[in-house]
Amino acid sequence: MSRIAKVAVDLSLDREFDYQIPDELVSTVEIGSRVSVPFGHRHVNGFVVGLADESDLDELKPISQVLGEKSLITEPVMELARWMSSYYLAPFETCVRSVLPAIVRRKSRGEKKQLTVSLVNSNAKEAGNLICEDLTDKQRAVFQCLEKNGTMLLSELIAAAETTASPVKSLEKKGLVHISSESVYRDPHAGVEILKTAPLELMPEQAVALEKIVTAMDAEKPQTVLLHGVTGSGKTEVYLQAISHALEQGKGAIVLVPEIALTPQTVDRFRARFADKPERVAVLHSSLADGERYDEWHRIRSGEATIVIGARSALFAPVKNPGLIVVDEEHEPTYKQDETPRYSARDAAVMRGHRENCAVVLGSATPALESYCNAKNGKYLYVDMPSRVDDRRMPEIRVVDMRLEGQRDGKRGLFSKELVFEIRARLDRAEQTMIFLNRRGFSASLVCPACGYVSECEHCSVKRTYHKARHRLICHLCGDEQGAPDRCPECGSPEFKYSGAGTEKIEEVMAKLFPKANIARMDSDTMRKKNAHREILSKFRVGKIDILIGTQMIAKGLDFPNVTLVGVVNPDHALHMADFRAGERVFQLLTQVAGRAGRGQVAGEVLVQTYTPHHPAIQFARRMDFEGFCDQELEFRKELFYPPYSHLTCITLRGKHESQVEQTCDLLWQCLEQCVSSDVMLSPPVPAPISRVRGEYRWQILLRAEKTGEMTRPVRRAVAAIKKWPKGVRCTIDIDAASLL
Ligand SMILES: Nc1ncnc2c1ncn2[C@@H]1O[C@H](COP(=O)(O)OP(=O)(O)OP(=O)(O)O)[C@@H](O)[C@H]1O
Ligand SMILES: [Zn+2]
């Protein structure tokens, strides 16, 4: 039995402290236990992160108390936190904290209790008759109510007997009723009924894929598999059957889905397959209430739930002995957390797989170039499914050159003639259309043609977006908003121009073009209410909506067989972003959006309206040529030593005073220059592409190297070398940065 515990306390000190484990706690303290320890003159809480037999210190204070019954962090998850801390250069304690939902960390007792009341025994009736005369009217009413209904919730009993708790208490004192407290499960799916689905008979490609995955799962050293399946190839069905295999082996499974694709539809598909024992499936995502999250997490910890489906942080779910971890849409940038620790859930999943000796499946129709190269190099097993279920045809993608469109009409409309024509054809045939535009609001910007004034956010270096319904100008970066002016604040001209359409405007114009159609819009503005998602999607499913307009919310994972047309409006602005992955992102997005069309009997069609029709990302997407896209993109990455040929670290300094930020950045760069080896490519400091956010200026330094370790050591040293780190300048280090904006 170890006698010394290493404890990370909740004080952001980034170090561990040794404590003695007192005799009476030896059997309860384990790695991951939540404990209370003396610290200076007070007590603080912390986690046991390690156990030891010896300490460098002679006198150790004892742990005062263990909070909760079970350790909260299992050993493999604790190891994962340690790996994150060293790989992503994040304080260990922050990593430990981030593997637990806040509510689980805060409350050692967070279950919801309910009081139930029952008659004491079968003789109670007789006893009741005997003593009925002794009872007050109210007590009698309560007694009779229980006689009639059996055990009742205290609250229901009080309501039914039209009384208060006090007569019930009196009856308890007389020994006639028993009041007990029971935990109630806060069910995130309360009221939603699902029917069990049977496994589908697999298509040949699916069968091969499943077989390879199962072999990887059963191997002595389970492997990571890249499942490259085109949209509609039935990846989800393969996941489901692979999970069944894990269950048969007595193991659990974790399925990660991007938050945005974590629609009720997706969750229901998993719940339905395992509906014979619904308690086996737990969900973890951001729209759960705290209590629901607490219960779901503890159901996993207790071993009741063995299948977890959730967003990024569900990777840390305390599933015992997982047999499979699935990362669906593995290319999604949202798997990268954008606060410390800046981990990639995909890469951390592969890491957890290694540690728990469990297979990992990364699935996508458009794998990230990093994963694709890992598969081609043999690091991952490559499995592909190049055709759709039932040999359904891939949609035909047409690129509409909006430059020509403009010339034809003399004036530029929002929609091309072709798109309008095709939508009308769908309405006539009672088929459905989706229109995708990755910009919410009404207009991207407000411009004064007279003096050239553009409304920009005061705190960020971006334009404000006009929201017409609310008649306000809103900054999409910091959320700052103000009323839209009637005339130009600079020159007073009343001739304002709003340019660059958003989803709100598309909806308005559509409604004018197709007055009889049912049109709905899905973006973060219309999705504020809790069940808005479910409502719109189920209306769309049953055909009550003809045209669904949306942002990236509608790009992924949705499976609506009656959608035969997808229109993409202006993917161009994403191409012009100052990020080396811009082309890759547009290619992925177009492929995903296009994948929503033609998933049923009727073939689908996709129209992409663009001002840059010849851009390779658009052309390769049109031809559905993933390999062609990769070849040319990889060539460019290789030439410039960008990922996947290197690992990339982005250091960002931010602060209110630009000169201070710039000077500190220069200083840091000089330190770095002295620390890095010749294997590291160090770029000089530059202002970030979005140079100001929330009133703070931002400067960046990029480092690239084949191995991350070659950068982390010098970066750590350089940051420490700056003795006088000016107050007000903050530094973030992003290893394997997903975005440079
Ligand atoms: N073996 C099968 N037999 C019949 N239908 C199937 C089979 N496998 C999957 N399907 C159906 O095909 C459709 C597409 O499958 P699924 O959604 O799993 O594809 P996917 O590859 O995950 O798609 P995407 O990446 O586009 O979201 C679904 O409606 C699914 O029920
Ligand atoms: Zn702003």
Structure description:
By secondary structure, this protein is α/β, with parallel strands linked by helices. It has five domains: 103 residues, 3-Layer(aba) Sandwich (GIY-YIG endonuclease); 73 residues; 186 residues, 3-Layer(aba) Sandwich (Rossmann fold), CATH 3.40.50.300; 180 residues, Rossmann fold (3-Layer(aba) Sandwich); 89 residues, Ribosomal protein S10 (Alpha-Beta Plaits). The strands form seven sheets. It has a seven-stranded parallel beta sheet, with helices on both faces. It has a six-stranded parallel beta sheet with strand order 16-26-25-17-24-23, with helices on both faces. A five-stranded antiparallel beta sheet has the order 2-1-4-3-5, covered by helices on one side. Helix 1 crosses helix 2, helix 8 runs parallel beside helix 9 and helix 22 packs across helix 23. The longest helix has 18 residues. It starts with a strand and ends in a 6-residue tail after the last strand. The model has no long low-confidence stretch (mean pLDDT 88). The chain binds adenosine-5'-triphosphate and zinc ion. Adenosine-5'-triphosphate binds next to helix 9.
